[in-house]
Amino acid sequence: MKKYIEVGVLGQPNVGKSTVLHALTGAEPEVQTYPFTTKGINIGYFEYKHNDIQVIDTPGLLDRRFEERNEIELKAVLALRHLADLIIFIIDPSETCGYS
Q1: pTM of the model
Q2: Measured CA distances, 64 to 44, 46, 69, 76, 94 (Å)
Q3: 4 torsion bin: left (phi>0), alpha (psi -120 to 50), beta (else)
Q4: Tens-place pLDDT, residues 30-59
């Protein structure tokens, strides 16, 4: 079985997580200009310096307690908790994503 370095992409809705996945791997997740487009886990792969990298794009997460998260958010958190060797947290300092 092939072992990948697993990189999770995390952040609020509409900050560009799926766009980062596409840019790094060429994967083609749905990308729209409105929040909550990603409703499941998207995965892409690339090689860097002889290392196989798996990038895991997750649905947007809101800043709330674990118990208040919906099913989609819970899947994202659990996938990252159990899969990711590294997490990239994407933020939108311009706040054009709709969240401060």
Answers
A1: 0.82
A2: 28, 33, 7, 14, 21
A3: beta
A4: 888 777 788 888 999 999 999 999 999 988
